[in-house]
Specification:
Length: 276
């Protein structure tokens, strides 16, 4: 059996070395081209009468930074960076395979046109909206509280999709559908209400922009079978690999950031780690 694999290296160099049509599912969450350094600090707080912070009832606390993880999210030619990678992704998908590309409002319009060009407009399956309600609040516009996930298939009309494997969600108005349907729940639509990774949650790694396992779980359940191979070549904190392991899939994760590789080593201790 092919081992689960974490590859440290630039995906532009790694992808051409992988065999054709070997992945049933590809999920990628590329940098969003925010023009900023994406960074997350982890701190600890302890009681200290000479500390730098004042808490409840005037108690003093001292904070210490224990880690700082991040990456530069600036690309002068974003589509030029992405296009050859998507060409490789198409080559790597099986005939029944599916690509999920996770993006936000900054580049979604342009990336959709690029995907149409590479995969064909008839290969477009869905535009998923992941809606959440945490983070900063803009004062001069409607606050941006959703990401977009574009779904494209390798073979129009020939893709694998198992709706029965997807965990169902409650009806918003259960009284309108009757007790039997209400008890069974419904298949999620193309709008997914799901929280971000909680600050103190079990799955939190401290890596910037970590995506929740619940989002990946739906994707992996619907578009792959047990034993299938899953690829994520902007792997970050390794959420795709964690969910693939949980659901009995095999995975290949690629990232060039040594901090990401170290997090994935800890999160996925049974995976083989290689350098490109």
């Amino acid at each position: 059996m092919t081992p689960d694999l974490i590859i440290e290296g630039d995906c532009a160099d790694v992808l051409p070395t992988l065999d054709d049509a070997t992945f049933q599912l590809i999920y990628i969450d590329p940098p969003f081209n925010t023009g900023k350094v994406q960074q997350r600090r982890t701190i600890t707080t302890v009681r200290d009468e000479d500390g730098d912070r004042t808490g409840y009832a005037g108690r003093r606390y001292r904070t210490t930074e224990t880690s700082r993880l991040g990456y530069l999210d600036v690309h002068d030619d974003y589509l030029g960076m992405l296009e050859p990678l998507l060409q490789q992704a198409k080559r790597l998908l099986t005939a029944s395979g599916t690509l999920y590309l996770h993006i936000d409002y900054r580049q979604a319009h342009a990336v959709k046109l690029l995907l149409d060009h590479i995969f064909g407009t008839d290969a477009f399956l869905n535009e998923l909206i992941w809606a959440y309600d945490f983070g900063g609040r803009a004062r001069d516009r409607w606050p941006a509280k959703h990401d977009t996930i574009f779904v494209y298939v390798r073979t129009p009309g020939g893709h694998f999709f198992d709706q029965d494997a997807v965990e169902r969600i409650p009806y918003l108005a259960p009284g309108l559908v009757g007790p039997e349907k209400a008890a069974r729940g419904k298949l999620p639509t193309d709008v997914w209400w799901h929280t971000i990774v909680p600050t103190n949650g079990r799955e939190k790694t401290g890596y910037p922009n970590q995506k929740p396992e619940g989002i990946l779980r739906r994707i992996v359940q619907a578009s792959s079978r047990e034993g299938d191979r899953v690829l994520d070549f902007f792997a970050g904190s390794g959420t795709t690999g964690a969910v693939a392991t949980e659901l009995g899939r095999r995975f290949v994760l690629v990232d060039r950031n040594p901090e990401a590789i170290e997090i994935m080593r800890k999160r996925l201790p049974n995976a083989k780690v290689e350098q490109a």
